[in-house]
Amino acid sequence: MELWFDGKVTLQSERDDAVEKITCSGINPRLREARFALTENKKVTKASIRLHIGEDEYSFTLDSSWLNFASLKTPKVMQDDNDDPDGLFYEKVGLIEKAVATMDKLFSTFIRLRVSEEWKSQEIPALAKWINRQIK
Questions:
Q1: CB-based burial of residue 78 (10 Å sphere; 0-12 exposed, 13-18 middle, 19+ buried)?
Q2: In this structure, what are the phi and psi dihedrals at residue 73, rounded to the nearest 5 degrees?
Q3: Measured between alpha carbons, how far is 101 from 49 in angstroms, rounded to an integer?
Q4: pLDDT tens, 19-34?
Q5: Residue 32 contacts residue 45 (beta carbons within 8 Å)
Q6: Among residues 119, 131, 128, 71, which one has the least CA distance to residue 96?
Q7: In the chain, which residue ranges form alpha helices assigned H by DSSP?
Q8: Dist CA 112 CA 26 (whole Å)
Q9: Least packed by Cβ within 10 Å: which of 2, 17, 81, 92?
Q10: CB 62: neighbour CB atoms within 10 A?
Q11: How many C-beta atoms surround the C-beta of residue 23 within 10 A?
Q12: CB count, 10 Å around CB of 22?
């Protein structure tokens, strides 16, 4: 599987006196404004995601509050509705379940990493390096 940000990222910070929000959009893979927002302690709240699972491609918006999917686009359903009209429904549901199960597995992997010793010793320094790499 492959997963990447696909054009739009919203970051937000909450302080006692205000909520600050920035939305970065476009196809720039460096996302300079988003990296700068991360240095200002803003957190990603929404992101447009593209997900490849084998030959299947999905796109959706992921909301960080509850890890909700919005605007989920699945691969095209390949079944002929003349053969089995119910089959179209079940194939579409199967594609949705495949994307959700993949994201669940990815999140589970992230949580295991997040609570491990490697998070502080390896991941935080690597993330900091990535964030600061293109800002200057």
A1: exposed
A2: -105, 125
A3: 15
A4: 889 998 877 656 778 8
A5: no
A6: 71
A7: 32-39, 85-114, 117-118, 124-133
A8: 32
A9: 17
A10: 19
A11: 14
A12: 15
CA distance 101 to 113: 18
Q: What is the pLDDT of residues 32-83, one digit of tens each?
A: 788 888 888 899 999 999 999 999 999 999 999 888 999 999 999 877 667 7
Read off the tokens for 73. 């686009």
The whole-angstrom separation of Cα 53 and Cα 135 is 32
Tokens, residue 119: 């998070």
State the Cα–Cα distance between residues 134 and 41, nearest whole angstrom.
Answer: 17
- What are 24's strand-pairing partners? 9
What residue type is assigned to position 103 of the chain?
A: M
pLDDT of residue 115: 97
Distance CA 21, CA 14 (A): 9
